[in-house]
């Protein structure tokens, strides 16, 4: 079969960042490969560990502020359905093209290496590092509350704790994938205990009070006072809650049986998180008065209402650990994508370095350093969220379109899993993401940060062509400079005469 246009393009462009792969190990690392150690249980622990964290305990408060209780429930279910449709798209692509590059690999195969580079650069500058920073900030807020300080008046302390968390996650990742996954397993136990604590406390509290059920909360005239702006803003918070599931895809290269386990992990993880999140939201609503539900520290208010300061402090620290697991998983996924892009010659070759512990050392360190830079410049959680969500939605849209493109260009390729309800699933997934981005760009309250994020997202395209044609640019610039210098010399000589 003759090579496709994209394959020609990939072949010609892959030398932009020539890869002389530096490695320290003499087995897998010497081949630029990552060791297959991740099982179904590990993968499920990673996905659940990523999603049962900052989003589940922080997003509901921000959703209540915009949508009220009834609207928040609807938005959560809709967000879960949207995330599940995205997970199904990722399942097909991750089993069709098993690679640590995930989105980078999918976009390169579908649209060419320039798209893969633009994505990798945007992931590094905006989405990946910004996502880790957002979750680390949420974790720090709850940790500071848990040790008895007010996070709202101690922003510098929150900032320092968030930076410390990033450094801890980086160290665990540098010690090896097995250690990073072990952290996920341990923190998953904490997450399950925290969820059980929320549900149990709500049930006991309501039973002890023996009051009339809070049905008034769910009879708010949501549809009568419907505003598209509030709905879209609320959905942004839901996207933050479900963001992170996609980082299973970069681990497919390290999974023992990706063809079987990737779809199973995605399906089990997304349905479980949607159901658990719904129960958590209902628990919050059943306990808290309306004036205490619109807050970033909603869970702290919940436990304070039930057990006072002692329970609030213990629960806040547990929630901080839940969010720490999300940050750790995002760092695992991002570093693998940069490693794979560098290995394929799409990203600077230094990112392809694999240590003796079979981990992409430079990718982990670089991602952590840039995340810390973001935390030092942008300290408020809401600002960090706006910083990375626009880029993330664009990536989701591109992945859905890549799936449709590859169905056309690779119709006979072996697909261990095929997305259900094709093409409706990828079309709805991509279309919803694009709509949210377009709305945010023209909404006065989010336009400024959205346009900045959009420009950073697409800056990879001009950078790619500048790097690709750098020798030509230097040659032309040199000739132009020589001609200008020669002309000026002639003018000066004539005037001297």
From TrEMBL:
Main location: membrane
Membrane topology: Multi-pass membrane protein
InterPro entries: AA/rel_permease1, AminoAcid_Transporter
Protein's cellular compartments: Membrane
Keywords: Membrane, Transmembrane, Transmembrane helix
Cellular component per GO, a single term: membrane
GO molecular function, one term: L-amino acid transmembrane transporter activity
UniProt-recorded name of the protein: Amino acid permease/ SLC12A domain-containing protein
Lineage, top ranks: Eukaryota, Sar, Rhizaria, Endomyxa, Phytomyxea
């Amino acid at each position: 079969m003759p090579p496709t246009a994209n394959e020609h393009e990939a072949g010609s462009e892959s030398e932009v960042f020539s890869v002389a792969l530096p490695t320290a190990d003499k087995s897998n690392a010497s081949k630029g490969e990552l060791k297959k150690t991740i099982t179904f249980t590990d993968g499920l622990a990673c996905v659940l560990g990523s999603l049962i964290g900052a989003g589940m305990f922080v997003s509901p408060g921000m959703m209540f502020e915009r949508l009220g209780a009834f609207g928040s429930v609807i938005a959560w279910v809709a967000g879960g359905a949207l995330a599940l449709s995205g997970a199904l798209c990722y399942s097909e692509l991750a089993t069709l093209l098993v690679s640590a590059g995930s989105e980078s690999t999918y976009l390169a195969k579908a649209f060419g290496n320039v798209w893969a580079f633009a994505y990798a650069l945007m992931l590094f500058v905006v989405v990946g590092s910004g996502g880790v920073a957002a979750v680390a900030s949420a974790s720090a807020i709850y940790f500071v509350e848990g040790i008895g300080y007010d996070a709202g008046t101690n922003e510098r302390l929150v900032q320092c704790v968030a930076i410390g968390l990033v450094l801890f996650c980086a160290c665990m990742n540098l010690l090896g994938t097995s250690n990073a996954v072990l952290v996920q397993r341990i923190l998953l136990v904490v997450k399950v205990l925290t969820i059980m604590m929320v549900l149990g406390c709500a049930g006991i509290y309501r039973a002890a009070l023996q009051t009339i059920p809070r049905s008034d909360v769910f009879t708010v005239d949501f549809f009568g006072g419907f505003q598209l702006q509030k709905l879209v803003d609320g959905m942004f918070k839901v996207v933050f809650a479900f963001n992170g599931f996609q980082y299973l895809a970069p681990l497919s290269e390290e999974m023992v049986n990706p063809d079987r386990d990737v779809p199973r992990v995605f399906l089990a993880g997304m349905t479980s998180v949607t159901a658990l999140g719904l129960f958590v939201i209902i628990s919050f609503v059943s306990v808290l008065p309306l004036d205490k539900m619109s807050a970033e520290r909603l869970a702290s208010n919940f436990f304070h209402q039930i057990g006072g300061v002692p329970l609030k402090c213990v629960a806040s620290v547990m929630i901080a650990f839940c969010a720490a697991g999300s940050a750790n998983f995002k760092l695992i996924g991002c570093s693998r994508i940069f490693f794979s892009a560098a290995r394929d010659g799409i990203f600077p070759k230094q990112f392809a370095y694999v240590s003796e512990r079979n981990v992409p050392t430079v990718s982990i360190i670089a991602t952590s350093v840039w995340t810390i830079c973001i935390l030092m410049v942008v300290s408020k959680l809401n600002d960090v969220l706006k910083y990375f969500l626009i880029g993330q939605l664009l990536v989701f849209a591109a992945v859905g379109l890549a799936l449709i493109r590859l169905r056309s260009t690779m119709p006979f390729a072996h697909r261990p899993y095929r997305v259900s309800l094709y093409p409706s699933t990828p079309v709805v997934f991509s279309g919803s993401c694009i709509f949210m981005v377009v709305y945010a760009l023209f909404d006065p309250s989010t336009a400024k940060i959205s346009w900045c994020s959009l420009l950073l997202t697409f800056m990879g395209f001009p950078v790619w062509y500048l790097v690709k044609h750098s020798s030509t640019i230097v040659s032309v610039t040199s000739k132009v400079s020589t001609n200008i210098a020669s002309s000026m010399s002639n003018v000066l000589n004539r005037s001297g005469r």
